[in-house]
Amino acid sequence: MTRKNTIGILAAAIVGLATLGQPTPAHALTPYFTPATNAVKTPDAKGFIQRWMLLEPISKPNRTNTVFTDSYLRAAFDTLYFPDQFTVLPKNGDKVTVGEQELNWHALESTNYNVKLFRFADGLKKNVYGVLFWAVTVVNSPEEVKDVRLSVGSNSASMWWLNGQEALLLSGDRRMVVDDAMSKRLTLKKGRNILRGAVINGPGMSDFCVRFVDAKGKPITNLSITCQ
Amino acid sequence: MKKQTIRLFVNALLITGLAQTGWAQVGKPFIHDPSTIMECEGKYYTFGTGRGGLISADGWTWDGGGVRPGGGAAPDAVKIGDRYLVAYGATGGGLGGGHNGKILTMWNKTLDPNSPDFAYSEAVVVASSDGLEDNDAIDPGLLLDPNDGRLWCSYGTYFGFIRLVELDPKTGKRVEGNEAINIAIDCEATDLIYYDGWYYLLGTHGTCRDGVNSTYNIVVGRSKKVTGPYLDNMGRDMLEGGGKMVVAAGDRKIGPGHFGWINLGDGVQKMSCHYEADLDQSGRSVLGIRPVLWKKGWPVAGDLFKEGTYEIESERRGYALELAVDFVRMPYARRGFQANNDEPIKALPAQTLEEVEATWPGGNIEVRIGDYMFRPHQRWTITAVPEAGGYLGGPYYKIVIAGTERALTATADAELTTVPVFTGAPEQLWRIDQLIDGTYRIMPKAIPNSTAQYALVSAGDSTPSLAPFDGDSDNCKWNFRAH
After folding, report:
1. Looking at the domain covering A32-226, what would its CATH class be?
2. Alpha-carbon gap, residue B44 to B270, rounded angstroms
3. Contact B325 A184 (CB under 8 A)
4. Class of residue A137 by CB neighbours under 10 A (exposed 0-12, middle 13-18, buried 19+)
5. CATH 3.40.250.10 fits B6-301, yes or no
6. Is the minimum CB–CB distance between B415 and chain A shorter than 8 Å?
7. Is the ipTM of this complex over 0.85?
8. Which 3 state secondary structure label does DSSP give B357?
9. How does pLDDT run across B297-337, given as a tens digit for each residue?
10. Which chain B residue has its CA at the smallest distance from A186's CA?
């Protein structure tokens, strides 16, 4: 039995429980997210970045994740969904219009090492399937660091840009695994580095985990993460 | 079995070879009882029974030219400090029957006969046999114990015992007052190594000097003390004839004998030997260099890499190296759980290159690591490039997508790509070494504009790259799977 089928049956079971009088799980961002603050925020002990600007999901219907070939993804991620999508550094509460959708940016901190996009969308009572998420964060480095790699795991496919340059594409019906894909060797500038990602998902869970690793593959933790 | 007449063999060595196609060493690697391979000033050297020896600039192509005076049988060599100590066996009665032998040692600062420093010291006798005692003092093997710097020499043949004596590592002479110790029977051309807390005694068993009918093979026992007892995997003492197989005949090569160990570090080990007969080289006795694998504490010869079409599997996660191209789905009829199982079964064709190649870009295509589905973008054909030379024990290979000339290539930023056509450029040539655990190290011959010696690594589960090799990391290890 496939994972997606399992999820479908589980979803049906949840609906069934609700009809039997059981309480429907509450739609909430907690305990998965807390509002981002201005307090100093470093990556966690393993280097995972937890503070992000997340855009409410753009509707991108796909009944299966098997369509996420490299070509499909490049076309999907090259599409302009909202103005300045590759350069904008939004503020909490900023709105964008995508087609008929009016979507808000949210400044959040994940309480886990990974960012659970499914819970983000569900917590805001948005579509959880057939969606495209945008995420932006600012990585502040005390010094220039060469030969770092951007490490990403995502469910499902995703694409990532560092300081406006494409860094990584994760294609296919992908599961989130720590250190699944690595960028080529990059340089973290001293000061602000803008990291942007887009995660696409049809059915099933959606999340991502991101960190930087040094030339020896060790997580980089002496960074500060801001939304601005 | 005692060694047969040496003169015929020496004559055979003088006969030039034909071009060879098999995976022994190339050039004129004709030798018997090669000494442990020594590296000296960028070249490799080994000496054999009779006079002389072989020299190689790269460890793959070998030719005559080595100089070792004294004649006799089955030398060995060890580097101590900045000098090389060479030991060999001389026999008064001749290898055809007499057993009054002598073990001699001599020094040289260099093994390069063209060097102004090339000069052997006068050979000194360190052990002997009188022709009647239970020992035949030829076939020395040297061990410089890494634990305490003591120098040991094993020697002997089937005629009686293999014996062990201690030499002075400063002079190469026998330690005064040292008494020989019997450590084995029923073997010859022994060698000692120390590895991971054990002393290993490697002996050659079987019949030699019978060409393609030689039954030579190499066996091993081990001990916690250099003086023995050396027991095999069944607990049988080598003094009782014990010994676990390290390497026997195979791949059209017959009669491996005279072990030599080359520990290159970082999990890369090689062994030298000779094959009594290489069917691809007129049945001559030739130099062999094989990977050494360790299985449950025992050395065993690995196989030379065989050309073919493979999945290149990452030891890190088990995913496969592949072109970063669109996955092309195979058509299939979805089958429900309630389908009729009595319907006839038929074989489905695998996806072919022709079905997918047109979907690939025409220029360079990057590589990644992904779930192996035996699809065309995951199948790599690996063939030797004879004109590209080699390294210790192997030739350089090209690695192309099966059915194409699209070649795996190192890039100047120490990453990877594939180019549409193999050109023979150094960054398209790959060194493949089997590691002691049976996995493989894969290294480009060169990285453009760099002197770095990097290996193919898994930077992430799905991301290959080039980086310094770490023998302790599965990131750096690969498997070749034909399936």
Report:
1. mainly beta
2. 13
3. no
4. buried
5. no
6. yes
7. yes
8. helix
9. 999 999 889 999 999 999 999 999 999 999 999 999 888 88
10. B413
